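Morning F.,

Quick status update on the modeling queue. The single chain you submitted on Monday has been processed. Sequence for confirmation:
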Amino acid sequence: DWSVESFVVSQASFKTTMVTDVGATNLNASTALAGIAGLKVTDAVIGKPASGKTYTIPTNDDKAAASAAFFKALEGVDVVVDEVYAPDPTTYNFESFLSTYGLTKSS
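Structure tokens below.
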């Protein structure tokens, strides 16, 4: 549901293939995200398991806790691709990114 605020790790097959094609390593999301309350795992394309997985962490009205769990799971990750929808991309900047993900400059 696009209207529910959440944190998402997309491991669609085409994305993980691009990562390995350049010699990098993908996050083992099933291990890194294990134990996070409310974690929902779905096929990247419904009914197509070969398409990869999507891991969704709902905020459940506690964005700070969800953000902390999400970024704890991403410790050691070198690159994160932000796919947040911004109605006016010209106004989306680093401060917007921090706010969207419940972070501060010192996070």
